[in-house]
């Protein structure tokens, strides 16, 4: 496995509170890796440290390069793109405008047009809603828009924070199918999820985060089959 992302001894503080305790994890090129854990475990904090929205101690390497001190917008240029928790689309702007914002670091007009086609193919609903204000769309549609916008930077690594949050079961299924398709098209995916069942079913590998520590790792199938994981994260299925 060639690592695209290597995190070693990563710590993040909020004031005096240490939210992440020297965690280490690796994402291989072409993988879907899931990060699961309960509320407040530090999942979003981990994502923010990787995308550069939160300062961190330790080492973050992307394609072998130490990016720990690289600013967030430069990380986008290197190929890391985050679709944030709570969607974060610009409500007053149209679907088209939101998508084009995702390409803000790029100048290659023809390739941007190709990627826009690709995104609209992945999310036909966004094509139907192309000129509609993002704020008037449903939660699921806004989630698709946030993912589409993240893809418009043509990332090598896509960070998805809770893509299934607040969605109906059928839509959750659909979002994960799209995540699998995104990977098939060559983008590596790190996905944070409360919906552990879907995440573990789709992921090649997963890490379990508990109050700032990584307590377990394994293939998605291994963790799905594990009784303690079932009890803690999968509820009574
Ligand atoms: P959730 O699924 O509920 O979003 P999470 O696993 O993503 O949880 P984080 O949002 O990363 O968890 O939070 C990890 C810990 O850091 C929590 O205890 C949280 O209260 C704390 N924390 C997060 N952001 C801040 C902040 N801006 N200031 C202070 N503490 C914070």
UniProtKB/TrEMBL annotation:
Keyword Transport recorded: yes
Protein name: ABC transporter related protein
Keywords: Amino-acid transport, ATP-binding, Nucleotide-binding, Transport
UniProt family annotation: Belongs to the ABC transporter superfamily.
Pfam families named in the record: ABC_tran (PF00005)
Domain ABC transporter: 5-236
SMART domains: AAA
Any one biological process term the GO annotation gives: L-amino acid transport
InterPro entries with a match to the protein in the record: AAA+_ATPase, ABC_branched_ATPase_LivF/BraG, ABC_transporter-like_ATP-bd, ABC_transporter-like_CS, BCAA_Transport_ATP-bd_LivF, P-loop_NTPase
